Amino acid sequence: MLEATSGDMQSSGYKPLTFLRQVASASLYPPLLEDECFPDDVKCKVKEILKHYRSVGGCTESVGVKMFRMKLANYLRKRDCGVSRDHDDLMLNGGVTEGIRNILTLLYGFVDSKQPAVVIPSPSYPYGIIEELGFKQISYELDEENCWASTTENMECAIADAKEKYALRAMVIINPSNPTSTVLRLNELEEIVKFTCKEKMILIVDEIMMYAFADHPTEGDPSYEQWKKETESRFKSFACKAKVIVDELNKIEGFSCPPMEGGLFAYTKIYVPEKAIKEGKRKCYNPSTFYAIQLLEETGILVTPGDVFGKEHNPHISKNHTMKSKPTQLSNYKTLHLQWHSDP
Fold it and tell me: Which of 21, 106, 186, 223 is the most exposed place for a label (fewest CB within 10 A)?
């Protein structure tokens, strides 16, 4: 079976970056600092960590290790052209869901008898936690005809009626988008920030920030050349595979896949024949779910059906993992699709 639903790169054959693995290993087992195979910059990094955090695996401050927050604040200051960042304004979480939970817990509460609401993109990763915490979930449509772009026009349409019934507390954007792999342009980000300010909503940006990437080797460090080689090789591999997968999917009649700008997934529109839609309805499945089940049973390829991401009204969309799929395996998609269109 080919699992095409996970974003786990290591299960796809990608090895952890050497610098990160060495820092993590020596932090967990300090005697490795005596190993001559470990570069000096790795040892310095580990000693710095252990100076602030005496035993890796022990309890930390609830907002995250101070040293890591200071490093991250410095990284953000450099990234954002000198805009001031204070480490006391940063909180480190064990994943996006925990971070969103913390924010929404603070925001929860009825306002003028109105139920609180959170605005999210559609399609998007399913945020079950929003309704779990008592918020109404309001969806704004991404512009499919424009490579799934986020537009303030669509956001305006989504909240026009909603804000009469609900107290809009926050808006979520995902960058790069999951599942569409779209990357927001600077002007789009600026418009979204202005929009959320105008509507007095908290802006929640779902994106992963790794401490190690905020404090990686720089030119002149012993580990720099290997770090540069490994990261550049990985990015080139991602770009190459993404292009191959998109090109091959678009060769299949009835498939439409926009370019992948970021992320690990190809979000593919599949035109399902009417007879398959009727058969799916007979078995109480949405078309994209029925397609995904048939693909698994007939070819052993496991994909995520598009209706998981809030697109029940546009059921011919499915999602495929680009990093695990090979061009030769894509022939299975074509075989099943042609069979569906040719069977009486």
Answer: 186
Q: DSSP 3-state assignment of 320? A: strand
| Pairing state between β 265-270 and 317-321 | antiparallel
Query: For residue 324, what are the contacts with CB-CB under 8 A and spacing of at least 6?
Result: 2, 3, 4, 6, 12
Q: pLDDT, tens digit, for every residue of 154-201?
A: 999 999 989 999 999 999 998 888 888 888 888 889 999 999 999 999
Q: Which residues have a Cβ under 8 Å from the Cβ of 135 and sit 6 or more positions away?
A: 104, 108, 115, 116, 117, 118, 169
Spacing of C-alpha 283 from chain mean position: 32
**pLDDT at residue 254 in the model:** 81
Would strands 317-321 and 304-305 be described as parallel, antiparallel, or unpaired? antiparallel
DSSP 126: -
DSSP 254: T
CA nearest to 202, candidates 125, 278, 135: 135
Helix (H) or strand (E) holding 35: none
Distance between CA atoms of residues 166 and 213, nearest Å? 39
Could you tell me which of 237, 235, 234, 259 has the C-alpha nearest to residue 249?
259
Pairing of strands 2-3, 317-321: unpaired
SS3 37: coil
